[in-house]
Amino acid sequence: MMLTAYGRWTEVARRDFKLALLTLALLAAVIFAFPGYAAPRNLAGVLDDTAILIMLALGQMLVILVRGIDLSMAANLALCGMLAALFNRAYPAAGVLPVLLLTLFAGGLLGAFNGLLVWKLRLPPIVVTLGTMSVYRGVIYLLSRGAWVNENEMTRDFLEFTRAQFLGLTTLAWAALIIAAAFIVALRYSRAARNLYAAGGNPEAAAYSGVDPGRMQFMAYVVAGAIAGVCGYLWVARFAVAYTDIALGFELQVIAACLIGGVAIAGGVGSALGVVIGCLFLGVIRSSLPLVGISAFWQMFINGVVILAAVLLSARQRLGTRAILEAPRT
Amino acid sequence: MTAQLLKRWESVLAVVLVLEFVLFASVSPYFLSVETLSDATFNFTERALVALPLALLIIAGEIDISVAAIIALSSVAMGLAAEAGVGTAGIAATGLGTGLLAGCVNGALVTLGRVPSIVATIGTMTLFRGIAYAVLGDRVLKNYPESFAMFGQGYAFGPVSIELALFAVLAVVFGLFLHRTRWGRAIYAIGANPVASEFARIRVNRYRFLLFALTGVASGLAAVLLTSRLGSTRPSIAQGWELEIISMVILGGVSVWGGKGSILGVVLAALVFGLVTFGLGLMNIPGIVMSIFTGSLLILVVALPALVQRR
After folding, report:
1. In sequence order, which ranges of B162-238 are alpha helices (DSSP H)?
2. Residues of chain A contacting B295 with CB distance shorter than 8 Å
3. Using a CB-CB distance cutoff of 8 angstroms, which residues of chain A are in contact with residue B294?
4. How distant is the Cα of A113 from the closest Cα of chain B, in angstroms?
5. CATH code of residue B155
6. Contact check, Cβ <8 Å, A139/B292
7. pLDDT tens-digit map of B2-56
8. Reduced to 3 states, what is the DSSP secondary structure of residue B193?
9. Mind listing the pLDDT tens digit for each residue in B71-87?
10. Which pTM value belongs to this model?
């Protein structure tokens, strides 16, 4: 058990290293062609642009590690973002802290709903989250009655929180860095994380050693949901608008970042560092497209090529042969 | 046992369908007219066309999330063909061909590339839709010849649209293929146990490839009908349809675990789905609220057997 775990770690570490080299090479190429790109302010901007993707991808990674998938993440984000905006409009004097707590709690609750269905009823994650994705989007419409909440209806501190700078980086960038660091440390050293990997790598064996794989799935969904919830507030504050369709389709970019970061869709394999590097890789591509003179319309095409390249290269390493994600049967 | 359960599920769908008729007929006096019902079919036939081969694919234990992106790609290809002055038949052939090609890409990724189908089609979904956006940007293509409108707006006979007639014929063909032929049985076998099927000398990968190609062609056909009906192409065409199409299939009683499902169920589910959308439209309920209903229904459908089995 330890041996395979050890073997897998080094394999994953090697992949992370290669991806990091690739990202650095890309960065170097962009800087070589456009020296202005290396300006600290620009790099900080790239990090700021990628921050929400990083946080969401880390949450999604937990879910994929335990053989799940969360397609409802962007809908959860949009719903909690709308909640945050409506709360702020109703109680402008309350400040940012209650908003953060509200979105954390609401997002966690939405995630827990996914998790309960997957855990207790053993429903296929892809169907459950496909369903909750449309339900959550519909609820936003009911909450907002289809109206937008615009910048002028948001308080100053609500908007400024994400943009405040500390040591040259925005709160948003710091949040991503801190969460990334916490994930890297916790996934490597905590017992809960080891159980998570065990539950995803081999649910039957995990069950025999006293880990309930379903419960680990539930926890992963709750964490992913809570992250999506808080990101909802951050998104709404950053773009200064809340409406039904914000972050529409963003869940696929998040999953793409995970796949590029080396998370195996069959579960049990993946590292937080890899996911963060995968997000940065996408972030560098996205931010350099306008420099090369390629229209933003090409972004999606490039994402598709990158995803396919990543999954084709890692196809040989995959463990299972599952085509549709299923709940572990114990 | 399973056959009985399936039959029971199909009867549930039939009852729901009747209830819908009664409900909408009592809400709106215009509902039960031939014109209204004929109009209502435009709501779902294009999606239902894709649901048929997708049902086969899901029964075989695979999935294709890229269907809506294939529709967009085919539509863009047709728009470009129309701009180049190709005739109506050529435009339709372009749409079908693009769909076939895209389906073959999916099939090759899954069989030759050994990529799990959900990941492969998330990738190609991004790629195909990405090509549509890259080629078109914010342009709109609408130089379609007048005769091209026939596919999506024409009527085969009386109030029966060409779309509906096409769907009815294909539903029968798919039903016979899946339930009455050796190949159909092989699809169930592959979904139930691909390894055992391989030992039974079923060429599993060949079936997978062909099913992906078939789903691609059907998406191309849906693109022909949709583009012809709308008369224009934007890269965002058929956005989000993959979810509605997958919902139709699962609502029809096809098991996401593979190996179970029937065409009759999928057809009934498509009717239920289409009527709900249309009826709620009659009642001025916005589509996004509908999505709450669809989503809950989807979860409920997969949860019901699980709840029953627990007893």
Report:
1. 162-180, 182-192, 194-199, 204-230
2. 130-136, 138
3. 131, 134
4. 12
5. 1.10.3470
6. yes
7. 566 556 788 888 888 898 888 888 887 878 888 888 888 887 899 999 999 999 9
8. coil
9. 999 999 999 999 998 99
10. 0.86
